[in-house]
Amino acid sequence: MENKPKIVCIGGPTAVGKTATAIKLAKMFNGEIISCDSIAIYKKLDIGSAKPNMEEQSQAKHYMIDIREPNEEFSMAEYREEAKKIIDDIISRGKLPIVVGGTGLYMKGLLFPMELGNAERDESIRQKYKEIAKQNGGQYLLDYLKQIDPESAEKLHAKDISRIIRAIEIFELTGKTKSSFKTKMESEFDYFLIFLNDDRNELYKRIDKRVDLMLELGLENEVKNLISSYGLTRDNQSMGGIGYKEFFDYFENKISYEEMVDLIKKNSRHYAKRQLTWFKKMPNVREYQYKNLDRIIEDVNSFLQIKLQK
Questions:
Q1: Which of 180, 197, 230 is the C-terminal boundary of a domain?
Q2: What totals of helices (H) and strands (E) does the chain contain, helices first?
Q3: Which of 9, 147, 181, 259 is deepest in the core (most CB within 10 A)?
């Protein structure tokens, strides 16, 4: 393990306190923070993504935030490639890389790359199935994927257009299903994976408060501006995030404002449950209550085998 680069990772459910914990560790251990969030990568998606604000970013150097336009797509393989370069750079300067975020797929892809991470891409195939999706809808595409790769289709929703297309693309390019590719469970990193958790009721209260605050800060105008400025629809990858996708039915008068707010809160709680399940299954994960910072610092210090600077 000693020859592998050391990194610290922080995962866990939404609103549990990952950003605050990461900043404290960065200050304590001369670290820099790499965001692991599939929505925070997008410019202009500020309120709904709950990305670190300017004051938070001023306390520790942050990466992988605001790196794509709202109308662009972004894959797990791209995340891994870009994050690895940043990790190498941070280590070369004698600092500690701290990877933090709730997108478990990206975290797992970084630590344990899948063989398909290097699978080729074909823009003509993508455009073909994007057009099919526009004409026939996401369910049509998902039904097609069920025929060629039922295992992958089972894990996707009809609104996950980009992921459905990627699974189809992999099959057409390689002749193998996406689900047949295996994850290599030995990491190239010597990693310390922190899973932050909290009492379920307290977590849900914080989620509800966070949603209320987002709306007070102007989330509705943020979504309206994104749609008008970039011509975004519910099929854009950036608009698939919770706190964004729910607005489309509201804008189309299919649900009331109150129903939309309740839906955002409900979807956020369900997402938190999925995050809990995902991170708990990660290899060598260490679970902590988010308030137990002293224990986290002590254990990270032991992992790094360095003395705290007074």
A1: 180
A2: 13, 6
A3: 9
Burial state string for 38-67 with b = 16 or more CB within 10 A and e = fewer than 16? bbbbbeebbbbbbbbeeeebeebebbbbbb
The encoded tokens of residue 166 equal: 């990627």
Residue 292 sits in the same domain as residue 240: yes
**Within a domain: 309:** no
> E-strand spans in 226-302?
285-289
Q: Are 51 and 131 within one domain?
A: no
At 228 the pLDDT is 97
* 197, 16 Cβ separation under 8 angstroms: yes
What's the rounded Cα separation, in Å, for the pair 159 and 48? 19
Distance from C-alpha of 36 to C-alpha of 11, rounded to nearest angstrom: 9
**pLDDT band, very low/low/confident/very high, at 184 (cuts 50, 70, 90):** low
Give me the torsion for CA of 187, 193, 199, 201, rounded to 10°. -60
